[in-house]
Amino acid sequence: MTHMPDNQGAVLSASAARALADELRSSLRGEVIDPGHPGYDEARTVWNGLIDRRPALVARCSGTADVVEAVRAAREHRPLVSIRGGGHQVAGSGVCDDGLVIDLSRMKGVHVDPAARTARAQAGVTWGEFDRETQLHALAAPGGEISATGIAGLTLGGGFGFVMRTFGLSCDNVRSLEIVTADGAVRTVSREEEPELFWAARGGGRGIGVVTSFEFGLHPLGPEVAGVLVLHPYERAEEVLRAWRDATYTAPETVTPELLLWSIPADPAVPQELHRADCVMVGAVYGGPPGDAATAALAPQRELGPPLMDLSGTMSYVALQSANTWRFPDGERYFMKSHFMDELSDEAIGTLMEWYSRRPTPESLIVVRTLGGAVARVGPDDSAFAHRSARYNVSIDAGWRDPALDGTAIGWARSAWDAMKPFSSGGTYVNFAGLGEDADELRGAVFGSHEGRLERTRAAYDPEGLFAPAAGRP
After folding, report:
1. 411 to each of 188, 359, 426, 434, 442, how far by Cα in Å?
2. Does the pLDDT at position 417 exceed 90?
């Protein structure tokens, strides 16, 4: 096996940071932000309020040419490098301490070709922005359950979404990518052009270069979609979980079921007496037009016993994609860690219930997502995403506001994850993989049998290890 160089990058001295800043300011159209800049705190802030890092410099790129200049300068000065897209990742890997952030968040271009059913989007685009453009033509690429999530990080890590059993993961819908590699070259990669780099970019996560844009294939979907959202009383939680599990076995590929153990939101659509009550939320989306076929396909997800509320029906695809965003606001504190599972046994369900009962805050939840369908139809070695055969992903998601609860909330999530490990198929989803300190523990679990091939591919395109620190983060 070829190993990446163990390059952690340099902690920039004040004089080295000034020299790098001067060089970048002379070559970038975008903004170069240092700790003395009035926008520094905004530039270093990401979605997860738990992340509080202080980079030496932020190079806020205006386009691919700026990225090339930033990579060239980084290759010369050798700082620690991180790459920021939407900034919505749990581990906050888009920012680093004492190094250079190559910030793509202002690169917002989206071009839709409705005749070809494709869209080219720059790496700073969020799923909400992407959906807004594609839904003008009643087209969609599967991606995200929170509209504020960036397309880049989600896609590079695989990309779960509400219609993934019908249309696959986000990475499965990528036709081509533009990548600036460590040598400063701008490469367009696809199945035909540099296929090994294209393979690594679809599920390989980080460390392959700076992806500046994505070309997605689009599917006819929307503007209205049919879905299920049923709230069940917590007292029936184990019964509902078992019935839901059994219903997933026969769900058609047009249906992507999901189940949450969580609190009922303080939403005007919900009676006030139910606000913040524990419940089981059963959700599913039909990956096609609303109508009789959708109603029939979704029916088993609605028929799991007497509910507290049944909010099922049709809604706009854009509204669906943004429906949960307000429950995960910027600046609150988050920790998420997941397992892939082949089965959801009665014992596993009991363990989930036990640990949910110990959750430290009302914002904390457990999510069970169903894979299979189009996700499993992709060949196991067709992309770097290593968990095609798993039936479920179980994510333990801690959320809280008070920094004094950091240890309690993270400790609960890690302990719950440990308790579920005996039921795991041995895999962890890179986008729900904890924080930086979890990286060494999870490396083999994230990439599985693809880890060696990924390391060889990264080394081939980055022999000096410029992006090695990024490759090592969750």
Report:
1. 43, 10, 21, 11, 17
2. yes
In contact, 427 and 446? CB cutoff 8 Å: yes
Q: How far apart are CA 414 and CA 456, in angstroms?
A: 31
Nearest by Cα to 99 from 16, 179, 182, 22: 16
Two structure tokens written together for 259: 């189940």
* Contact criterion met (CB below 8 Å) for 160 and 147: no
Nearest to 345 by CA among 261, 232, 418, 246: 246
Q: Which of 250, 461, 223, 436 is nearest to 319 (CA)?
A: 223
Torsion angle defined by CA atoms of residues 158, 161, 166 and 171, in that order, rounded to the nearest 10 degrees: -20
Cα separation of 217 and 408, whole Å? 43
Contact present, 373 and 164 (Cβ < 8 Å): yes
Tokens representing 401 are 């506001």
Q: What confidence tens digit (pLDDT) does each residue in 375-411 have?
A: 999 999 999 999 999 999 999 999 999 999 999 999 9
Q: Which of 291, 294, 329, 316 lies closest to 131 in space, CA to CA?
A: 316
Q: What is the pLDDT of residues 238-251, one digit of tens each?
A: 999 999 999 999 99
How far is Cα 118 from Cα 388, in angstroms, rounded to an integer? 25
Q: What does the alpha-carbon distance between residue 313 and residue 50 come to, in Å, rounded to a whole number? A: 36
pTM value is 0.94
Q: Are 22 and 76 in contact (CB under 8 A)?
A: no
Cβ burial, residue 199 (10 Å; 0-12/13-18/19+)? buried
Two tokens, residue 196: 């090994």
Chain length of the chain: 474
Q: What is the pLDDT of residues 9-28, one digit of tens each?
A: 567 788 899 999 999 999 99
Q: Ramachandran region of residue 246, left (φ > 0), alpha (ψ -120 to 50) or beta?
A: alpha
Residue 1 has pLDDT above 60, yes or no: no
Alpha helices in 204-322 (DSSP H): 237-249, 292-302, 317-322
What mean pLDDT value characterizes the chain? 93
